[in-house]
């Protein structure tokens, strides 16, 4: 894909995520839908945090596209490095995690993650926009643009920090309100919760490593992390 086409694609996806974030932000004004956002607001859900994250990433990608055309590659190394770090450690792993974890639980027992009652509140297209289209967009980004992965220690540390921050927020909301963000958590014992969160992080690490392998398969050794010289 040419540089212009990639720029147009990034702008299209950015516009889509901006629209989704704006649309969802307006749903709190509906009395029926506002109940979903009680005890923590919309940002208690990883799904909505992911939509904001994707909008941020594609915003950076669009900025990098524009600056690259205006200034050239040498003057925007920081923006390019930040774009790659954001995508490899957060945007790709989290979008894939949301897609896979949601649909696995949904197909097993939808009441654990997206109760049937929500069908009368949120339209079907919005459910797929939040939980289905996110992965194809991320996979397309891998195919269309090479991304330089950081050293594994750095990448997995950032992913661990993000995971710990979200788990801490989930636990804090429960301690303050007595309600769990997702119904599945209410079904688990303290030991079960610890195992669930641990397995979720291991799962996200697997996704991270898969993304790195996929990037290497498409773009080769030139996009592998650079080791520091001793």
TrEMBL record:
Top-level taxon: Eukaryota
The reaction(s) this protein catalyses: 12-(9Z-octadecenoyloxy)-octadecanoate + H2O = 12-hydroxyoctadecanoate + (9Z)-octadecenoate + H(+); 9-hexadecanoyloxy-octadecanoate + H2O = 9-hydroxy-octadecanoate + hexadecanoate + H(+); 9-(9Z-hexadecenoyloxy)-octadecanoate + H2O = (9Z)-hexadecenoate + 9-hydroxy-octadecanoate + H(+); 9-octadecanoyloxy-octadecanoate + H2O = 9-hydroxy-octadecanoate + octadecanoate + H(+)
Cell compartment(s), UniProt: Endomembrane system
Parts of the chain that traverse the membrane: 7-25, 45-64, 85-105, 125-144, 156-174, 194-211
GO CC terms in record: endomembrane system; membrane
Coiled-coil spans in chain: none
UniProt keyword Cell wall biogenesis/degradation, yes or no: no
Stored InterPro entries: ADTRP_AIG1
Family according to the record: Belongs to the AIG1 family.
Protein name: Androgen-dependent TFPI-regulating protein isoform X1
Organism in which the protein naturally occurs: Tursiops truncatus
